[in-house]
Structure formats: structure tokens, C-alpha cells
Amino acid sequence: MLRIHFTDADLARTRVATAPDPLWEICASLHRFQSRNGRWAYAEWYRTARARLHSTHLTRTLRTLLLPLVPRATYFPDFLTPPEAAEGLDTGLEAILATPEHRVLDEVGILARSSGAPAWTPRLAEPGMRKELVQAMRTYYDTAIAPHSDHIQARVDAERAGRARALLDHGVEGMLQNLGPTLRWQSPVLHTVYPEDRDLYLNGRGLLLVPSYFCWGNPVAFGDAELDPVLIYSLSHEPHHSALPGDLGSGAPLAALLGRTRAVVLRAVAVGATTGELARAAGVSASSASQHATALRDAGLITSHRDAASVRHTLTPLGAALLRANTPDHGSR
């Protein structure tokens, strides 16, 4: 069990990441290759990623370099997921290259003691070996994750919309509730299932919540409690929404989707909305709003996820692009 202890100052400084963290997603996706737990939620990604890795001859790099560094265990090195990655993949990889040698040695030593590590890992303190690692991580990201980045971003946007609504309705403590089945808020402590028994005292630093597409099950925090606190937690996955779509569009004529009522529904979805809120925005019944939402979802313009007792709708990348490209006059025809 991990217990994260908040003060009032920590509650004021708690926030949700604006985008998927590329390095945390790399590490979490590597865990997906090491476990069958939740495989149904990633079945399409798993199939296509394996095919791409094989066709680009990256399977050996995955097996001999990346997977040994990121075991699905109690610990993997913190320097692989620097906070600078919030600014993008390039910035994060530069931060890995800039990690002090003594820190690299300390953390691969912890890895060796906790779950075992190949004999070559201390060489990561050498700039040349770390450049090889960074190149492998970049190539892996481009091959296995980047092709699905729009879908992943849309899922994170949906989660942020849900957290924002909880914050507006119930405050920060409300935002910390219903983060997932393994997390429980009991003021002033956030409890979560964890591979080891541990207490994390935020001490006024706040907490960055990082929703992750590839994280499954237990949330993840830095091993070093002195680092700026983050908690990586899993997005919810439902069987009928789990597959990564190969084509966001359905081929249906856009004109059929942009009638007055449906355009109002699409604009309401832009800020995240429940079915009841869509009905009120469009001035229609809940069943009619649900039908409009279904049509938009089937066309790949919105995505729907259960949030406690409600279903929350948010835009997909295609839906956002359509909304940007159409003026209100176009939408009212």
C-alpha cells in the first residue's frame, strides 16, 4: 500500500498533466509486453506494435536493452522518466542524457538489488552508452506509440475533462475521488495499492497527477521521495471502447452530421459533457441526445467513457479538427 499524505498547501498545488508524458508512456507500454493482465484493453495496439517492431528489426533491442531496464517489478530507474518530458519527447530525452553519472550508477544499483539487472547497466553512466539508450527509446516511441498518439491524447483529454468537472463540482478533494478502483481518498491521505508498503509525504510540494494510457492496475510513483512528487495512474478502459481505431472516420458524409441539433451537441462535447448536459444544451430529450451522441461516436467524432454513474463525452482529434474547421454559420445549417 502507498499512502500519499497531503497538507492544505499540497491540495492547493495538486494538478493534472496537460498531455501524455512520452517517457512514462514508453515505460508503461514496455510493461504491457511483460504481462497478460489487461491484454484485452490493448489487443489492437499489442498486435500492431509487435508487427511494427518486427518489421523494423527492433525486437532484439526491445528484448536486450529496453525490457531489462524497465521490469514490471517494484522499481525501475527514476532517471528514465525525468519531469522535463512534460515539455515533449526531445526535452525528456535530453534530460536523460544530462543525468549526472553518480545518479545513474545509484539507480541502476537499486535496480540490480531489487529485481536484478544485466551486467552492462553500469555502463549507462558513460555518455556513449546513454546515447545508445536514448536512440533506442526514440525509435521505439516512433514505432510503437507515435502512430496512436492522437487517440492517446484524446483519452487523456477526456480524463482531464472529467477531473475538471469534479474539481468544479466538489473541489480538489472531489477531484481526488474516483481516480480508479485501486485508489481511495480518505482525507488527508490518498491510499493506493502498491507493490511495497510506503508513505509519501508531500510536505507542501503538491502532487502532479499523470493519467497514462498504458499504465494498468497499480499507479506508479518515483522511487526517490525527494523528487517532485508525481502519480501515474491508469485511464479507465472499457471493452467496447478499448481498441485503437485504425481510421477515426466512418465514411459517413459530414453534411449528415452537421444538422443544427447535432452541431450543438458537438460544440457542447468540446468542453466535456454528460448525456444529460447534451440534452439541455440542445433542447432535446435525453434519449434523443443519446442518439445524437451515438451517431457522432460512430463517425469517430467523439468518444464516450463512464465516469461514476454518468457517461461523459469528449471530442476525438477528428472531432476537434472538424469543429475548428467549421464556423458557427456552417454548424447552424
Structure description:
The chain has 333 residues and is α/β, with parallel strands linked by helices. It folds into three domains: 2-17 and 151-240, no CATH class; 22-150, no CATH class; 247-331, Orthogonal Bundle (Arc Repressor Mutant, subunit A), CATH 1.10.10. 46% of the residues lie in helices and 13% in strands. The protein has 13 helices and ten strands. The strands form three sheets. It has a four-stranded mixed sheet with strand order 3-4-1-5, with no helix packed on it. The chain has a three-stranded parallel sheet with strand order 2-6-7. It is globular and about 65 Å long. The model is unreliable at 239-255 and 327-333 (pLDDT under 50).
Radius of gyration: 21 Å
Total domains, how many? 3
Fraction of residues in helix: 40-55%
β-sheet strand percentage: 5-15%
Q: Strand arrangement, largest sheet?
A: 3-4-1-5
Q: Mean pLDDT across all residues, rounded?
A: 85
What's the number of extended β-strand segments? 10
Which descriptor suits the 3D outline?
globular
Largest sheet, in brief, is: 4 strands, mixed
Output the helix-strand order: EHEHHHHHHHEEEEEHEHHEEHH
